[in-house]
């Protein structure tokens, strides 16, 4: 049996798959000790731990440690003259007219920041050597006096030569036993000192937290005589064995959203769809991502709590549009949705738990997509009158009927999602019409056909049980590790050979790391080359598969880069400028033997009366079914609503749907 | 209005997103460090009349008056006469522009063969000729400051990519490769804007998009007027001064009268000193930008989109030939210093009207440090722009070490300097303890940057301010430290003027010190915990904590850990 447990902010989801049987369990999360919620999910599902072969886990522990600043007491060490790197940041403001602007709070305060005498130059040569005596005499006692549990080391230009960091790391580890030391080159070997220092500090900060959490988790599994493999999800969309993760904690960030994208990608791939726009719409926000040829896209730059992070993460854009997002009118009379959310309490007005502000969920209740007979989450009975009452002030301000106001709010939420999708597609030089939409999360499938229509996309693939795709994704992910190397190479005839040599180095190192954690061949490899025109500061990553790397030529690199640059930036194609390579990236992947399937639930017991749906500014006759009632091969014409236990699917006006052989619900826009 | 509320909300937000995408792409595909690392550029979408509809959240001084910059272009080349491929360009301070390095490019957006708006971008170009690489601090007229492009119309196919305009620019600048690259990034940003607006027109119709543009401007105006109405009616006065003009030691006073009347504000700079012979004169559009930025920041929430509508309730009078409205050929390169003093004077005036909403004077100065070297690689120019500490507010301490309110440049990473620049090396970059003013809330800390000179013949040029006159505190807060620039040579520190240049030698260490922001309210009202935090963070010396805040500090006990 394979079990995936995903700890989210509100719910902890479990999906267990054993041959053709699946079990799905949702229990409340326990934020103060997240592992308890996970343990509870296992017992609530009635699972015998001993029988579990693969136990895959994702949690918000690392993310929360940073957001709530509950990480270890941490020190930061850098080159003399630059103690304040983490405080100075980049000297800019994110909000230009806010006089009370504050910078993001650094992970390490000034009092925890220290300097060491040394300097390396960008060509790797040593300008000032690191003195061991100096470290032992000055730095070690200072760190000891501060009782730090973790130390982040980021020395200038270490990406070009890691010698000093390695030496310093070794000294600190031997003189400060029990203190977790993280060097920048172990986390990210790329230039720009603030971003690298920030990444290193974040990593060092969550290291002891993740190590402690996973050791408690492993202990519990061992106590239950677990003898399978315990793996943990990373932000890059791959799994790692728990013991390996305890040493590369930073990759545990954003693992929940990443698992969801992988889950959606795998399920859609079963039906042959490999170019996807996924959107995961939950209670407070929507996560949008692009999947190209079956693989989620990566971003090499992201941030958490406004602090920069430079390890590869899935390229996910989040907008504040979820079921709980509050609908309001601003002081210029414009309709707005979010980013404020009604949260779990009081929740939308229709929950009847004291919420009075209108939300997107309330809008769906007013318009009839969420049926008054529905028991949301199996427990909450929706209150139509409360939802209508909440929308009355908005309707009045816009001089619309209550249902028109509700539909306007839904359309605006759709527009916000469309906007996020444009960020990951159009703005990256990709046309969304070349993709199919894959919605998931509790609310995604309510918005999918409308979002697709707005984008000009004519196909939507709704996976079975869209409410637990993240937990499923844990079971469908491969084991993955990434590494990168900054090496400035002019793109000329000699470049392919140099690139080969660097890739070889990265491959050897990654393969060794995989073998060390017990993951043997065969592997799959992905290669990325960051390039730019000479003189530019930002690179465009171009990905290559194994074969094209073997036969890499200067022309091919040039062509691929110029094409990508032109698509994203609208210039470059005609440029005769020289090109340079800045960074090389390799990912190693140990494939999962088989991708498990997620079946549609067999729930056919509930009956729904055919209440109308308000859409396109009028009430429409609407077909309603329990999700399990639509059988493979059967089709349904919109407007229609499929009521499931983890999510509701809205088939919009002008759309039709059928269940395919893989249990995916395929929605298609009717030909005009 | 014909457009439904929902289409209005969707289209207006899309227009804002377009401006931001243009800005992001301008920066990310640029070539010079001033644009790609310091991000000294901006972008906006304009309607077909040349009114700003939406702008990227980049540099306030460049953004506010884009509408003023395009007007002289449109007066000469009306929108209906433009053809596909045409673009308008100007950097003329005496025709709606700011200072010469800021080149504004406007690309008409066509839909069904009609101009429906303009994509606009502006970039600070590293070098546009003139008396000295990057920055000529001795210029006594605008002709010495570089090439001047009057409001002009060119065509991409005919005049760029080897055409006459490109060749003209190339022939007049010292680092043509970077400069032409940055122009290309501007053209591309405008093309992105045009493509996105055309997509919106295809979906919603050009009429709807144009109507939303007008309504979006009206929306900002409504919100601006609603905010002004909350400010008590009255006449308020404020004053500030620039240290000097770089030649004499005489401060240059800037005076303002601000009258708030129901939902309009009348700003009058009569009484401000006359224009001067050096580069601190402020072209009219920069004066407008400073005025609008200050009023908007103080009286409105940050959420009101900045566009033409913000400008409508604000009426500005500046007598000609004064420092804030110079007449040609006065040099204007350091126009931001006067812009900040106009900003500060208005802030002081408004502090009488809305004391809870203003902040204390910050370091509020643009310090431009330009190193250049002419050697075997031709000209090399490195330009950096620095702010300082922000002024404290009624609700918190000022932001430490950040660019000043009218600008928003990033620093250049030390590792980027190490790669790019083989004539100076950054050897120190740190916060400056005790550099801020004290009060109930303290100002933001200033900072310093140290450069070691690696080659004889390296030149330094600087313009700055607040080397003499400190940023004051308000409501009982104390002033912050002023700034300086000095060269450590042979064990001595040679301090140089705030608007000057200097020939450097190998081994010199140049120190640039940026001061902090002023304090807000009485120091005696400061929370003791905050004082202790500042001492623990080594931003406030125990002596100062004792003297100013009466804090008695215990010598910190050494914690000895068992190993």
Structural features, described:
The complex is a heterodimer of chains A (672) and B (563). Chain A is α+β, with helices and mostly antiparallel strands and 672 residues long. Among the domains of chain A are: 2-67 and 210-252, ATPase, nucleotide binding domain (Nucleotidyltransferase, domain 5, 2-Layer Sandwich), CATH 3.30.420.40; 325-412, no CATH class; 479-590, Dna Ligase, domain 1 (2-Layer Sandwich). Chain A has a six-stranded mixed beta sheet, with helices on both faces. In chain A, strands 13, 14, 15, 20 and 25 form a five-stranded mixed beta sheet that branches. Chain A has a four-stranded parallel beta sheet with strand order 6-5-9-10, with helices on both faces. In chain A, a hairpin with a 5-residue loop joins strand 7 and strand 8. In chain A, helix 12 packs across helix 13. By secondary structure, chain B is of the alpha+beta class. Among the domains of chain B are: 5-223, no CATH class; 360-526, no CATH class. Helices cover 31% and strands 23% of the residues of chain B. Chain B is built from 14 helices and 19 strands. Chain B has helices spanning 5-28, 33-36, 60-63, 66-76, 156-159, 164-172, 176-204, 206-229, 284-299, 308-311, 335-353, 414-420, 528-536, 542-549, and strands at residues 41-47, 52-55, 86-90, 102-111, 114-124, 152-155, 234-242, 252-261, 264-268, 314-317, 367-375, 378-386, 424-432, 446-453, 459-463, 484-489, 492-496, 499-503, 509-514. In chain B, the strands form four sheets. Chain B has a six-stranded antiparallel beta sheet with strand order 2-1-5-4-3-6, with helices on both faces. In chain B, helix 6 (164-172) runs antiparallel to helix 7. The longest helix of chain B is centred in the middle third of the chain and has 29 residues, at 176-204. The N and C termini of chain B lie far apart (75 Å). Chains A and B meet through helix 3, helix 12 and helix 17 of A and helix 1, helix 7, helix 8, helix 9 and helix 12 of B.
């Amino acid at each position: 049996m394979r079990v995936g447990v995903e700890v989210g902010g509100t719910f902890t989801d479990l999906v267990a798959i054993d041959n053709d049987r699946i079990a799905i369990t949702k229990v409340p999360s326990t934020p103060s000790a997240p592992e308890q919620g996970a343990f509870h999910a296992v017992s609530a599902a009635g699972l015998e731990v001993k029988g579990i072969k693969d136990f895959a886990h994702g949690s918000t522990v690392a993310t929360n440690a940073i957001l709530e600043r509950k990480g270890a007491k941490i020190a930061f060490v850098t080159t003399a003259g630059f103690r304040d790197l983490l405080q100075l940041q980049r000297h800019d403001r994110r909000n230009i007219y806010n006089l009370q602007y504050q910078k993001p709070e650094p992970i390490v305060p000034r009092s925890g920041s220290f300097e060491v005498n040394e300097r390396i130059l960008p060509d790797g040569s040593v300008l000032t050597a690191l003195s061991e005596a100096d470290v032992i005499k000055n730095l070690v006692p200072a760190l000891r006096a501060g009782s730090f549990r973790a130390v982040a080391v980021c020395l200038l230009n270490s990406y070009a030569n890691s010698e000093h960091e390695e030496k310093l790391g070794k000294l600190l580890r031997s003189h400060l036993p029990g203190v977790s030391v993280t060097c920048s080159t172990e986390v990210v070997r790329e230039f720009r000192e603030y971003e690298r220092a920030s990444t290193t500090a974040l990593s060092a900060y969550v290291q002891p937290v993740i190590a402690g959490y996973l050791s408690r988790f492993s202990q519990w599994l061992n106590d239950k005589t677990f003898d399978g493999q315990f793996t943990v999800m990373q932000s890059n969309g791959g799994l790692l064995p728990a013991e390996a993760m305890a040493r590369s904690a930073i990759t545990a960030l954003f693992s929940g959203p990443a698992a969801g994208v992988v889950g959606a990608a795998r399920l859609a791939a079963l039906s042959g769809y490999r170019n996807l726009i996924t959107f995961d719409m939950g209670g407070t926000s929507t996560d949008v991502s692009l999947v190209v040829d079956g693989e989620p896209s990566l971003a090499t730059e992201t941030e958490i709590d406004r602090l920069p992070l430079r390890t590869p993460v899935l390229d996910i854009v989040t907008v504040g549009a979820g079921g709980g997002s509050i609908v309001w009118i601003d002081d210029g009379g414009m309709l707005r949705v979010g980013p404020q959310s009604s949260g779990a309490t009081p929740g939308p007005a229709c929950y009847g738990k004291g919420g009075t502000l209108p939300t997107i969920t309330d809008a769906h209740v007013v318009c009839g997509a969420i049926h008054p007979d529905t028991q949301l989450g199996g427990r909450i009975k929706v209150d139509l009158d409360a939802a209508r009452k909440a929308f009355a002030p908005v309707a009045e301000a816009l001089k619309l009927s209550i249902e028109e106001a509700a539909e306007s709010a839904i359309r605006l939420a759709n527009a916000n999602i469309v906007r996020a999708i444009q960020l990951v597609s159009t703005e990256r030089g990709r046309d969304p019409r070349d993709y199919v939409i894959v919605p998931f999360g509790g609310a995604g499938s309510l918005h999918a056909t409308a979002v697709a229509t707005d984008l000009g996309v004519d196909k939507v693939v709704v996976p079975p049980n869209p409410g637990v795709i993240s937990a499923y994704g844990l079971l469908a992910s491969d084991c993955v590790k990434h590494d990168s190397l900054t090496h400035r190479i002019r793109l000329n005839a000699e470049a392919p050979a140099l690139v080969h040599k660097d890739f070889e180095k990265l491959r050897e190192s990654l393969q060794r790391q995989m073998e060390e954690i017990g993951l043997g061949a065969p592997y799959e490899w992905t290669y990325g080359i960051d390039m730019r025109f000479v003189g530019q500061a930002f690179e465009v990553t171009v990905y290559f598969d194994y074969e094209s790397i073997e036969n890499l030529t200067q022309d091919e690199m040039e062509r691929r880069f110029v094409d990508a640059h032109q698509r994203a930036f609208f210039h470059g194609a005609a440029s005769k400028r020289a090109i340079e390579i800045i960074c090389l990236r390799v990912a190693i992947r140990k494939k999962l033997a088989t991708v498990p399937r997620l079946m549609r639930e067999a729930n056919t017991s509930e009956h729904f009366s055919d209440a109308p749906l308000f859409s396109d500014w009028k009430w429409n006759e609407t077909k309603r079914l329990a999700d399990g009632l639509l059988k493979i091969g059967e089709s349904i014409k919109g407007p229609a609503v499929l009521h499931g236990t983890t999510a509701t699917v809205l088939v919009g006006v002008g759309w039709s749907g059928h269940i395919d052989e893989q249990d995916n619900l395929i929605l298609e826009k009717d030909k005009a | 209005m014909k457009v439904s509320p929902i289409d209005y909300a969707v289209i207006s937000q899309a227009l804002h997103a377009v401006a931001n995408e243009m800005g992001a792409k301008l920066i990310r595909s640029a070539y010079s460090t001033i644009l790609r690392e310091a991000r000294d550029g901006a972008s906006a979408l304009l309607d077909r009349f040349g009114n700003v509809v939406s702008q990227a959240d980049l540099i306030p001084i460049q953004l506010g008056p884009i509408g003023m910059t395009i007007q002289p272009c449109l007066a000469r080349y009306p929108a209906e006469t433009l053809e596909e491929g045409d673009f308008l360009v100007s950097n003329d301070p005496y025709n709606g522009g700011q200072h010469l390095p800021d080149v504004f490019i406007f690309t008409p957006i066509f839909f069904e063969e009609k101009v429906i708006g303009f994509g606009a971008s502006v970039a600070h170009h590293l070098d546009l000729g003139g008396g000295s690489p990057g920055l000529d601090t001795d210029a006594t007229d605008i002709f010495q400051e570089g090439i001047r492009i009057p409001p002009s119309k060119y065509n991409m196919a005919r005049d760029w990519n080897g055409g006459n305009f490109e060749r003209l620019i190339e022939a007049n600048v010292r680092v043509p490769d970077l400069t032409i690259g940055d122009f290309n990034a501007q053209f591309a940003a405008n093309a992105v804007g045009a493509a996105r607006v055309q997509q919106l027109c295809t979906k919603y119709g050009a009429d709807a998009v144009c109507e939303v543009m007008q309504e979006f401007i009206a929306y900002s105006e409504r919100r601006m007027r609603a905010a002004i109405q909350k400010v008590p009616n009255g006449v308020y006065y404020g004053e500030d001064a620039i240290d000097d003009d770089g030649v004499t030691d005489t401060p240059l006073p800037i005076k303002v009268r601000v009258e708030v009347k129901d939902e309009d504000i009348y700003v009058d700079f009569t009484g401000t000193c006359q224009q001067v012979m050096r580069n601190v004169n402020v072209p009219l559009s920069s004066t407008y930008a400073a005025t609008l930025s200050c009023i908007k920041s103080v009286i409105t929430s940050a959420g009101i989109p900045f566009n033409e509508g913000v400008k409508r309730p604000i009426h500005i009078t500046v007598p000609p030939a004064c420092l804030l409205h110079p007449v040609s050929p006065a040099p204007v390169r350091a126009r931001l210093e006067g812009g900040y003093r106009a900003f500060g004077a208005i802030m002081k005036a408004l502090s009488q009207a809305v004391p809870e909403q203003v902040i204390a004077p910050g370091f509020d100065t643009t310090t431009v440090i330009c190193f250049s070297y002419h050697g075997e690689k031709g000209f090399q120019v490195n330009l950096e722009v620095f702010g300082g500490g922000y002024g404290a507010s009624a609700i918190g301490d000022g932001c430490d070490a950040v660019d000043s309110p009218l600008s928003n440049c990033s620093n250049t990473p030390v590792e980027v300097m190490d790669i790019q620049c083989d004539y100076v090396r950054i050897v120190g970059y740190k916060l400056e303890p005790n550099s801020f003013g004290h009060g109930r809330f303290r100002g933001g800390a200033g900072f310093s940057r140290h450069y070691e000179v690696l080659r004889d013949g390296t030149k330094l040029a600087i313009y700055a301010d607040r080397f003499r006159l400190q940023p004051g505190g308000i409501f009982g807060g104390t002033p912050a430290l002023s700034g300086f620039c000095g060269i450590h040579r042979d064990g001595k520190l040679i301090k140089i003027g705030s608007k000057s240049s200097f020939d450097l030698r190998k081994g010199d260490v140049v120190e640039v010190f940026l001061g902090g922001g002023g304090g807000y309210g009485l120091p005696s009202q400061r929370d003791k915990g905050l004082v202790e935090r500042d001492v623990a963070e080594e931003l406030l010396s125990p002596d100062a904590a004792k003297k100013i805040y009466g804090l008695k500090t215990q010598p910190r006990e050494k914690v000895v850990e068992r190993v």
